[in-house]
Amino acid sequence: MDVIKTLGWRKFCIIYENNDGLVRTQDILKNRTWQISLRQLPFSDDYRPMLKEAKSSGVTHVVLDVERKNIFQVLKQAQQIGMMTSYHNYFITSLDLHTVDLEDFRHGGTNITSLRLVDPDNPLVQRVIQDWVFGELRYGRAVEPTQTTTLQTEVALMYDAVQLFAKALDDLDRPRHIDVTPLECDGDFTWVHGNSLINYMKWVQVNGLTGLIKFDTEGFRRDVTLDIVELSKEGLERVGRWDPHTGANYTRTYSEVQQGIVDSLQNKTLVITSVLAAPYTMLRETSEQMTGNDRYEGFCVDLIAEISNILGFNFSIKIADDGQHGKFDAKLNRWNGMIGELLSQKADLAIGDLTITYEREQEVDFTMPWMNLGITILYRKPTKQPPNLFSFLSPLSLDVWLYMATAYLGVSLLLFVLARLSPYEWIASSFSCRDQEDRTLENQYSLINSLWFTMGSLLQQGTEQQPKAMSTRIVAGIWWFFTLIMISSYTANLAAFLTVERMESPIESAEDLAKQTKIKYGSLYGGSTWNFFSTSKLPTYQRMFSFMESQNPSVYTKSNEEGVKRVQKSDGQYAYMMESSSIEYITERYCDLTQVGGPLDSKSYGIALPPGQMLRPLTWFYSL
Ligand code: ASP
Known about the structure:
Blueprint: H1 2-7, E1 11-16, H2 19-24, H3 26-30, E2 35-40, H4 48-56, E3 61-65, H5 68-80, E4 89-92, E5 111-116, H6 123-138, H7 153-173, H8 194-203, E6 206-208, E7 211-213, E8 226-232, E9 235-243, E10 247-250, H9 254-265, E11 269-274, E12 282-283, E13 296-297, H10 299-311, E14 314-319, E15 328-329, E16 334-335, H11 337-343, E17 349-350, H12 358-363, E18 365-366, E19 371-373, E20 375-380, H13 398-421, E21 426-428, E22 441-443, H14 447-458, H15 470-499, H16 510-515, E23 520-523, H17 528-535, H18 539-550, H19 560-569, E24 574-579, H20 580-589, E25 593-596, E26 603-605, E27 608-609, H21 616-623
Parallel strand pairs: 1-2, 1-3, 3-4, 4-5, 11-14, 11-17, 23-24
Antiparallel strand pairs: 5-8, 6-7, 8-9, 9-10, 12-13, 15-16, 18-27, 19-26, 20-24, 20-25, 21-22
Helix pairs in contact: 7-8, 13-14, 13-15, 17-18
The structure holds aspartic acid.
Family: Belongs to the glutamate-gated ion channel (TC 1.A.10.1) family.
Protein name: Glutamate receptor 1
Membrane topology: Multi-pass membrane protein
């Protein structure tokens, strides 16, 4: 468990042989943080059907709990069906892997890890093997070549047991003589020295072939340390140590591990999966016939070309068969798009406008993000209002115009009445001058004249009539002041109306979209934007998602390009939810489109790698 944790495995398959294997791996099975599938080794010698089935269900990490004698066959048959590539990782529980001939698997790049109790480089082990080989040859017995270099764990344990027993007997025999008396196995008598011998063996510490031999009071081995070994081109190499107190500790440094992987990448050709989306991966527009990677250009193509230069690998770009980014299809129980291609080992890397999401992160590894973005709305730019015949009325609202008309009539009437009442507004008629007796009086403010006077002053023109009485002058003064304010405001507003172009957009944010149903809105189907709405817990986005789901014809699109075209053609009846980085690119190119509102979330694009260790230097490269 410690080693699997240190290796960072999250999803793997346990291949076991018999019930003992299940018992041995029960603690692993109980760990809920791992996704584990179980497969039993068939009783026949043909393991290929089981391995093929494991391969097709996307198994890349295997815990192999089979007997030593079967390990080679299982690995060999896995190799035959293509399950021994650099994407495959094996952890072999047998402590005897060092006694298996792994020559055939050294160069495939498969990550094989195991543990061992006996260190073949230990001088004590070498001396014991030499003595034994020498002894066997002396008696004319044949020795297998693998047996001349290393020992099986069981043999080493047996050797250590005998050594310990002999030492204990010898030590006890020194101070007093120990007799050995014949005893019956099922008799009542026990050997008098038996207890002392056992207690002494529990207490004494000896260095054996399996390390320091030490027991607890119950008689179980204590403080056992195991070597963690990995298969490299040179054979099994010790890469760390496990002990019960500190767990698994790798002796290689992080940069040594990374360097090892960088070395393994040299001159390898990696298949890069991508989707066509401007400006990340695009078909090169040229009149010449292009082949290979030259067919593509874009930000991601440049990015991977730079990385490959630095890390020294070659690459070949392929567009994902279904052109999708990656969505889990519950019915088919598999991922589609770029993620699916990584999981089915059709590609080694996925690069494009591929968003790092929680669900995808569970299945594949992502590098550090290379671009940050958020979901925003792509919409048609607000259009200019056509000129209106009555636009001179626009500076003031209808209410103001109505109040003004009322005030105009009211003031005219007031003036008329006051002029009637005041004696100073009555003057002698010019026609009656000759006859003093027959003087007729005239009033200049007839109803028509009053209306004319107020109209003249409202339009800042003036009239012939001048008020003479105090009351009419006060009314006229107040009216003039009122018209001064009104005309100034009107002139100022009119100037502003004439200079500022009135652009009106019916939507300013996602909330505006959610509130209405006239303007339809949608997103790329199955991408992270769609996923954001489908999994959101916020009522506004949930409402938007149910609206999108209920629309017929569908508001979803197969590509962002299709979405952009739909917004352009819909004449303001369709808004498209898209990632801000792509929207910025689109709005720079299509002047009739714009981004509406701020980002709804915050996320990033990253390069996806198949789960496993092989391409980790990319992650490391980004963290520099
Ligand atoms: N970049 C997104 C993805 O990785 C696509 C989208 O939803 O706009 O799925």
